[in-house]
Amino acid sequence: HRRLHARETRLSEFNQTERKAMLGSYTKVLFVRDPFHRLIATFLQGMGISPSFSSFVQEVLDSGMHNGSMAWKPLVSLCRPCLIQYDYVVMFGFLRQELGHLLRRAGLPAGSLLPELTDSQVHWTYRWLSEQMFSELSAQQKQQLSHFYRWDLAAFPFSSSFLSD
């Protein structure tokens, strides 16, 4: 009982029966984004102190899974999709369409609650940025990044990700 109410307890510390009971009454939504796009956004927001994208990526790779920032850790290690059966997985880049569907399923008026989201501009911008940033990386860094994010790439449909190649 005490463990159920502890603030610092991680979901993975509970057994399957306890997790199922705790999460059973919630609608679970997971928002996912291409890991390479997450790296670009983190770099552009200045969360890395590196002068170039290539050196930032090297910092990420050197930090590894356990010492890295939540901004670039693989989603599978953060969101535990094997432990939690999410009701919805919402892909960044399709937010307007998917959030509208989610709000309608919840019985809410989707049109009035959604901000103006221009998904096609987001796709074009990140495609262009990805091409530019990816070209800065060495072949070894590209291979290491694909390996670092291999479970995200396997778990979610990032078919157009530069890391999938």
UniProtKB/TrEMBL annotation:
EC number of this enzyme: 2.8.2.-
Topology versus the membrane:
Single-pass type II membrane protein
Entry GO MF terms: sulfotransferase activity
Q: Which GO terms describe its cellular component?
A: Golgi membrane
Question: Does Transferase show up as a keyword for this record?
Answer: yes
Task: Name its GO BP terms in alphabetical order.
Answer: carbohydrate biosynthetic process; dermatan sulfate proteoglycan metabolic process
Keywords attached to this Swiss-Prot or TrEMBL record, sorted alphabetically, are:
Carbohydrate metabolism, Glycoprotein, Golgi apparatus, Membrane, Signal-anchor, Transferase, Transmembrane, Transmembrane helix
Database matches in InterPro entries: Carb_sulfotrans_8-10, Sulfotransferase
Main subcellular localization, coarse class?
Golgi
Key word Chloroplast present: no
Task: Tell me the Pfam families matching this sequence.
Answer: Sulfotransfer_2 (PF03567)
Q: Which domain of life is it from?
A: Eukaryota
- What compartments host this protein? Golgi apparatus membrane
Q: Which family does it belong to?
A: Belongs to the sulfotransferase 2 family.
Task: Read off the PANTHER family from this record.
Answer: CARBOHYDRATE SULFOTRANSFERASE
Name the UniProt record assigns to this protein: Carbohydrate sulfotransferase
| Source organism | Brachypodius melanocephalos
